[in-house]
Design brief:
The chain is α+β, with helices and mostly antiparallel strands. Helix content is 28%, strand content 26%. The chain contains 8 helices and 7 strands. A 7-stranded antiparallel sheet has the order 2-1-5-6-7-4-3. A hairpin with a 2-residue loop joins β1 and β2. α7 packs across α8. The radius of gyration is 20 Å and the shape is globular. The mean pLDDT is 96.
Length: 209
């Protein structure tokens, strides 16, 4: 590990801001306290969202994905998100119960700009609401209702630097450790890695909803 240089650690906002130019006017005026009609299409086109929450054990990030528009815009200041099947850790939902503040990053394939949204969330089991999000005959157990407080788009620099949508930048899945290999190592062999990997495609296919 590199040796820490305490003298280089920034400890005040004034010291941080002194390193950077003032934000451009566009960076300020793009922020809304609601879902502007020009921001709504980004939400309705996004099949992938990163959900940020915070709880007693600290911050957490969770990927959420489904068909475009799986987050439902119900008004200028509210969106609804179904909780699709996952690993049952419930990290995000637990956090929302203790701290309702959330942030979301909407990602649209092929588009450089992303959309950032923050607000306060609650978890509901309303039968009609859950049923309205049914897919393949399966309703989510809960729906997350988010009251919007801030929305703005993020420019494409990060996506361009990452070459996120460049087919030539894609990495073969075989170049990275498989889920089974990771679980076998971290469980001390309790989980059989090869068997896990062999069964995974069918399990994912059969339990998407």
């Amino acid at each position: 590990m590199a040796e820490a240089n305490d003298d280089a650690v920034i400890r005040s906002l004034a010291a941080l801001e002194a390193l950077y130019d003032a934000p451009a006017r566009g960076s300020i005026v793009k922020e809304c306290d609601h879902i502007h009609p020009l921001y709504r299409p980004f939400i309705e086109a996004a099949p992938f969202v990163v959900l940020a929450t915070a709880g007693p054990e600290g911050p957490d990030l969770s990927p959420r994905g489904d068909g475009p528009g799986f987050l439902r815009v119900t008004g200028a200041r509210e969106v609804l998100m179904p909780d699709r099947r996952g690993n049952n850790r419930l990290d995000s939902l637990r956090n929302i119960i203790t701290d309702p503040r959330v942030a979301l990053l909407f990602i649209v394939p092929g588009v450089g700009e992303t959309l950032r949204l923050t607000g306060r969330a609650e978890v509901t089991t309303d039968p009609g609401l859950c049923a309205s999000f049914a897919q393949n005959g399966q309703s989510p157990r809960v729906v997350v209702r988010i009251a919007v407080s801030k929305v703005f788009f993020q420019c494409s620099r990060a996506v361009l630097r990452a070459k996120l949508w460049d087919p030539g930048a894609q990495i073969p899945r075989s170049a990275l450790p498989s889920p089974g290999a990771i679980l076998a190592a971290l469980s001390g062999g309790e989980v059989g890695g090869a068997a896990y990997d062999e069964a995974l495609p069918a399990r994912l296919r059969d339990t998407l909803y």
